[in-house]
Amino acid sequence: MARWLVLSDIHANLTALEAVLQAAGTCERVVCLGDLVGYGPDPNEVVDRLRALGAVCIRGNHDRVASGLATAEDFSPAARVAIEWTRRILREDTLAYLRGLPAGPQQLDGVVLVHGAVTDEDLYVYSPWQAAEQIQRSPGLITLFGHTHLQGGFQWRAGRIGLISLPTTAGQPVAEVVFDDAARYLLNPGSVGQPRDGDPRAAFAVLEDGRGVEFWRVAYDIRAVQARMAAAGLPESLILRLSFGR
Ligand code: ZN
After folding, report:
1. How remote is the CA of residue 159 from the centroid of ligand 1, in Å?
2. Is 223 buried (19+), middle (13-18) or exposed (0-12) by CB count in 10 A?
3. Where are the alpha helices (DSSP H) in the chain?
4. How far is the CA of 210 from the centre of ligand 1 (A)?
5. What one-character-per-residue DSSP string does 18-36 give?
6. Who's near 118: CB < 8 A, 6+ residues apart?
């Protein structure tokens, strides 16, 4: 089967995206689970790169707000400042692309793609009980999700939910999960552009259809991104958090 590069929550961080593409090597397909823009300094460049790769993308909440399909009323003050900046610098063609992104769930060769959850594109799935419900409601055996910026996921087997725990040691890939034919999976590649699990390295996953999934982390030049954010006048809190992965 094909090797799929699974990305989510890139958040306009081109430097992290380039590091991920280099580390991942050749993949037959690139999928992105939403939040291409917001927070970071490179929204047009990230969208250009994904379009050039022919990536299959669904929308996230930041893409919806950036393209004017929703308001920023639920956003934190820093996120709102960043999305307003994003709106000002988006090119017309980038805006049209973001506005045209489909909502999840979408199916691709039987794999289900969602931003937040199967039942609600904006729902954050953190807990095992939420994951159990989402897996049972998913039309596919493998569901890919993002939105929480936390790498890992859940396995459902014989009526029990299990957490996929990843080792915290450095190295690539971080972890490999070989699929059990009797199980269903809800998998989160983590965030490329703004990880929140305490590891500042860019997160992504490689799905080998029918076989398993690899969870990866890759270092990138965080300072270069922070310098561009500062030059753009983006909020200090968003700049600082990249250093900590929080
Ligand atoms: Zn996000």
Report:
1. 30
2. exposed
3. 14-24, 43-53, 61-66, 77-89, 92-99, 128-137, 222-232, 236-244
4. 27
5. HHHHHHH---SEEEE-S--
6. 104, 105, 112, 134, 137, 138, 143
Ligand 1 centroid to Cα of residue 28, in Å, is 25
Q: How far apart are CA 68 and CA 55, in angstroms?
A: 22
Query: What's the token pair of residue 224?
Result: 């270069």
| C-alpha triplet 229, 65, 140: angle, nearest 5° | 105
Ligand 1 geometric centre to CA of 127 (Å): 18
Each residue of 230-246: pLDDT tens digit? 999 999 999 999 999 99
Distance 203 CA to ligand 1 centre (A): 13
- pLDDT, one tens digit per residue, over 145-190 is 999 999 999 999 999 999 998 876 666 678 899 999 999 999 999 9
CB 142 within 8 A of CB 212: no
CB atoms within 10 A of CB 99: 14
Residue 144 has φ and ψ, to the nearest 5°, of -105, 130
Distance 6 CA to ligand 1 centre (A): 14
Single pTM value for the model = 0.96
**Residues 6+ positions from 128 with CB-CB distance below 8 Å:** 154, 161, 162, 163
CA of 36 relative to ligand 1 center, distance in Å: 8
Nearest Cα to Cα of residue 197 among 221, 166, 223:
166
Determine the distance separating the centroid of ligand 1 and the alpha carbon of 56, expressed in angstroms: 17
